[in-house]
Amino acid sequence: MDRQLLLVSTLCFLVAVVHTLLALRNGVFHPVRFNFLAIATGFVLQSAFLSIRGHALGRCPLTNLFEVFIFLAWSVALIYLVIGPTYRLSLMGAFTAPLVFLIQALALLAPIDVPHQVRVAANPWLEFHASMSMIAYGAFALACVAGVMYLVQERQLKTHQLHSIFYHLPPLTNLFAAITRLLWLGFALYTAGLVSGFFTGGPLPRVKMICAFAVWIFYGAILQGRHLHRLAPKRIAALCVLAFSAAVSVLWAINFVSQSRPM
Amino acid sequence: MSLFCVGLSHHTASVETRERYALQRSEEALRAESGCAEALILATCNRVEVYVSDTSPVTTEQIARCLTGGPATDPADQGSALYRHEGEDCVRHLFRVAAGLDSMVIGETEILGQVKKAYAQARESGSAGPLLHRLFQRAFRVAKQVRSRTDITRGAVSVGSVAVDLAVKIFGDLRERKVLILGAGETSERTARALSSRGVADIRVSNRSFERAETLAGLVRGRAVSFQDWPLQCREIDILIASTSSDQPLLTRELLSPLVRERSDRPLFIIDIAVPRDVAPEVNEMDGVFLYDIDSLQSIAEQSLALRRQQMTAGEQIIAEHVADFCAWLRRGRDVPASANPIVAQSLDEATLRASQL
Predict the structure, then answer these.
(1) Which of A263, B70, B156, B174 is the most buried (most CB within 10 A)?
(2) With left for phi above 0 and alpha for psi between -120 and 50, is residue A56 left, alpha or beta?
(3) Which domains are delineated in chain B?
(4) Domain containing A169: what range?
C-alpha cells in the first residue's frame, strides 16, 4: 500500500517533468501553476507514505537507504513548496521535478528497501538529528537547482544566445539572493542536525563524523567566500552544484558504513 | 444576416493610401450612408477596417466612398489595396488582428487596446449591435488566449527594448539601479529614456562636451558627470550605455579589472551602441560583466522576431478553434426563424449585451 502511494507520487513528478519537456519542445513554457499542482500532489502522497511507514516502524522512517532517499525527495519538495512562492522562483519546479523524480525512481527501482536488521527503539535526538540533516539536504538540493538555473542564464547572457527558457528564468540578481538564502537555511539546519548528533547517546562512528564535518566545512567555506565577497556569484553557483553532488555521495557513504546501525 | 469586413492595411497599402482612408468618419455616418445595420471602424496607423453586419448586401465601393467622404479615390488603389473578407474569413481576420498576428511587428499588444477602443466607441454610439458585440467579445478572448498560451509576445524586438529587457533579466527591479550614459547620442538618449520609464531614477551623463552632457541630463532627469571622472563611476553604476565617437575603445579589461573587484558581487551590464565600439570585447569575459554591442542587441531583436514567427502556428491553431466555434454559433442563428433568432432578436440593452458575452 505504502509503495503504491509512492509510485503515484513519482508519477506526479514525472507528469511535471513531461509537461515541462513538452512545453520546452514547443517553445511555450508556462510551467508555474501546473508544476506547482503536480509537485504539491506528489508531496502529499510522499507525506502519506512517510506517515504510514513511520507508524509501522514506530519512529522517524530513516532506517534504510530507501527511506533516506524518499525523505530527501520529500525535503526537496517541501522546501520548494515553502520557498518557491516566497522567492518567486516558481520556475524551480521545472528543475525540481526532475530531481525529485530521479531520486524517487532510483529509490523505487534499486533493491534498497531492506528492513533494518537491528530494531532500534525510538530516540528523539537521533530522529531530530536525521530529519534536520535530511531537510538541510533538501535546502542544499534546491540551492544546487538554483545554481544550475543561474549558470544556464549566465551562460546565455554571456554568449548572447537567448533561448525560450531564458525568458522564464528569474532575474540573475534575485536568483543569486535565493541561492544565498538557501545556503544559509541549509547550513543552519545542517549545523543543528550535526550538533544534535552528539546528544544521541550512542557511540559516534568516526567515518560518519568525518564525512558529515567535511560537508559542513565545504558549505561553510562557500558561505564564507560569499560573505567576504571573495567568490564571484558564478563560482558560488558552480560550487553549490559541486557541493551537493559531493554531499549526496557522502550521504551514500554514511549509509553504507552505518549498515549495522540505523541513522 | 451577413458579416463582412472591408479595409486596407500595411500589407496592402502605402501610408499615403492609408491616410486617405483614415479620415475621421463616424460609424453613424457610415451606417446612414451605406444603410447597414451594424458597423464598426477600426482605424490605426497601420490599418483602416470596417466591420459590418447587415441583412442586405453592402458593396465594397459603398464602404470605400463612405470612408473617403466622397467618390472613391484612385481606382487602382481600390483594386489592389482594399480587401474584403466575408463570414468565416471575416471572423478569422478579426481574431488574427486582435491577437497581433496580422501586425507589422508580430505579437505586438498595442493593437488589442486599439480594437477595444474602437469597439467601445461603436458601442457608445449604438453602431455595434448583438452580432458585432459577440464577435468582438470573442476576439478579445481569443487575443488573450493567444497571448497567454503562446510566446507570441515574448522578447523585445527593438534595440532599446532589448536593452531594457536584458537589464530586467539581470537586475530584476530597476528602481534602485544606477545608470551612466557615456556620450550624449540619440540612441543612448532613447535607451536611457526606456530605462527611466522602467523606474531607473539615478541616471548620470558624461560627455566630452560638458554642456551637451548637461543638456541630455536635463532631458532624462539625470545629472552631468565630468568626462575625466567616468571610469571611477564604474565602481558604483550598474548599467553603462556607451555611445561616444571615439576611434579607440575607451573601456578595456585592464581599466575595468580593478574597478570590478571593488564592486563585490554586483553585475555590470554594458550596452555599447557606438561604432566603432567604445568597449573592448574582452570585457565580456570578465566575471559578472555582461557586454552587448549594437550587433548583439540587433541579433537578439531578430531572434525574438523569429521566435514570434514560430509561435504563429500555435496562435493560428487557437484562432482556428474559435473561428469554427463562432461560425457554428453564427449558423445556428441563421437556421432559426427571425423571431427566435438569437442574432436578430436580441435587443441592444446593456443587460442583454452582457448576457450575450461568450
Answers:
(1) A263
(2) alpha
(3) 2-149+305-355 (3.30.460.30), 159-287 (3.40.50.720)
(4) 2-112+122-257
Biggest CA pair distance of chain B: 84
Q: What span, in angstroms and rounded, lies between the C-alpha atoms of B51 and A129?
A: 72
* Choice among A22-31, A241-250, B16-25 with the minimum mean pLDDT: A22-31
Crossing angle of helices B130-149 and B110-124, in 10° steps, is: 160
d(CA B356, CA B52) in angstroms, rounded, equals 19
Q: Do A30 and B299 touch (CB under 8 A)?
A: no
Greatest mean pLDDT range, B14-18, B56-60, B104-108: B104-108
Place B64 in a pLDDT band, splitting at 50, 70 and 90.
confident
Tens digits of residue pLDDT in B260-292: 877 778 899 999 988 889 999 999 999 999 999
Specify the amino acid at residue A28: V
Q: Does the residue A54 lie in any domain?
A: yes
Q: Is B234 assigned a catalytic role? A: no
Residue A89 lies in a domain: yes
Which of 141-200 (A) contact B at CB < 8 A?
153, 157-158, 160, 162, 164, 166-167, 169-174, 176
> In angstroms, what separates the C-alpha of B90 from chain A's closest C-alpha?
28
Q: What is the ipTM of this complex?
A: 0.72
Q: Is B21 exposed, middle or buried (0-12, 13-18, 19+ CB in 10 A)?
A: buried
> A203-235 pLDDT, tens per residue?
777 888 888 899 999 999 999 998 888 888 999
**Cα separation, A26 vs A237, whole angstroms:** 29
How far apart CA B88 and CA B5 sit, in angstroms, is: 11
The structural domain count of chain A equals: 1
Within a domain: A262: no
Q: Which of A89, A160, A222, A229 to mutate to test the interface with B (most CBs of B within 10 A)?
A: A160
Backbone torsion region of residue B69, taken as left when φ is above 0, otherwise alpha when ψ lies between -120 and 50, otherwise beta = left
Whether A263 is in a domain gets the answer no
